[in-house]
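Handover notes (outgoing to incoming on-call)

Open items:
1. Probable lipoprotein: sequence verified, structure written out, both below. Nothing else pending on this one.
2. Nothing else urgent.
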Amino acid sequence: MKRLVFFVAMFLAFSCTKREPKVPHIFQLKSAKMVRFVNDVAFVNQQKFSGYLYDLYPNKDTVSVEGFINGKLWGRCRKWYPNQQLMEERFYYQGRKNGTQTAYWDNGNKRFEFVAKDDAYQGELKEWSFDGKLSHVGHFKEGQEEGSQKMWYDTGKIRANYVIKNGKRYGLLGTKNCKNVSDSIFVVK
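Probable lipoprotein structure tokens:
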């Protein structure tokens, strides 16, 4: 009897879970004449495309591979530099950015990394300069700045350091009118 209850419970548990569709293993050259985009929806031969669109450099190295379901970006999408270094890796769900979005400079250093939810920033965003120095750390909630925001010059000197709390900004906002804040201070005699 315990076995029967166990199997019924397992059947119900697995039958109630929603299965995410997978991008079919159909590959189509993105630059082919039969491929066109209308409002960010991919069509092949006038039908919404499900599969992978890829693009090639003249030397036949891969430029990009993007997954689509029902014409919308879906799953992992990747792009590469001509030197075969990964340029970016993004994740989509029903045509909208979802999950970790990462880009790299052509030397392999990270360029930025953030999490997206329904096409909006969510959580921490980090950006780096070409030589690998951290240049921006921001925090977001539903696509809006919320919490600590920091930016640095290439020299490492702080450019902005402020906090957004309930839509209000507090702290060092940075330079104004291309002048350093300390240059704008004058002494009254």
